[in-house]
Write the structure tokens for this entry.
Amino acid sequence: MSAQDRGHRAVLEVQGVHKRFGDQHVLRGIDLTVHQHEAVVLIGASGSGKSTLLKTVNLLEQVDDGRIVLAGDDITDPRADVDAVRARIGVVFQHYNLFPHMTVLANVVLAMRKVFGTPRAEAERRGLELLARIGLGDKAGEYPDRLSGGQQQRVAIVRAIATNPELLLLDEITSALDPQLVGEVLDLVSELKAAGSTIVMATHEMSFARRVADRVVYLKDGVIIESGTPEQIFEHPQRPETREFLARLSDPFTA
Ligand SMILES: Nc1ncnc2c1ncn2[C@@H]1O[C@H](COP(=O)(O)OP(=O)(O)OP(=O)(O)O)[C@@H](O)[C@H]1O
């Protein structure tokens, strides 16, 4: 049964969103609703618009048309407070997530302290607890460059959830990692999903999409071609474009 069927409220509503970069029409009428506790995975070829879509939700890119609603609030309204909106959303990107000049713990507590004004002792207690939970309690005083890429991404994820955001956006968070480090990062995402986080994730990791997504959304040239459960998309794709995309992935000579 889907989150929608269970009557969970919509956390994110993307409605008729268009985005152009000069002559290039990168998002062409995107409609997407994400319900509380749902994990939606965006798949599609490089350049299909996955990152741009996530950036419009975090207000890193302005939409040209349409609107985006976060838990009932139109965040694309020009009067919306950008910092207040970003404080409600946790984000992890492919690269450059941690501040290199700050310790792991300082990175994790930063938003709690600066954005929410959490007292230092309380923020550090929560930071240490979160780091311990992902097995990195002993790295709290280290600088990020002393951690593996997988450990750094896990810290970045923990930092993004430290403030209990309403929505977590994950953009290709494993694509810069050595293959043997991918699993530990995706396992943490699975745990967050199991604990009830609401997640939108762009990924090239199809096996993960299959395992964790409630819904898989296939994007091509800025259009949602098809969306459904992992079984619907991977086992019984309805659209020829989706079938071609998936067939190409499994062909080592054209992938
Ligand atoms: N700031 C920008 N200025 C101009 N063009 C941009 C900008 N950001 C993205 N684009 C273009 O928009 C298109 C969609 O890019 P986007 O990064 O959203 O794709 P993607 O599906 O996330 O790709 P990938 O899987 O490689 O990350 C691409 O053609 C890209 O070159």
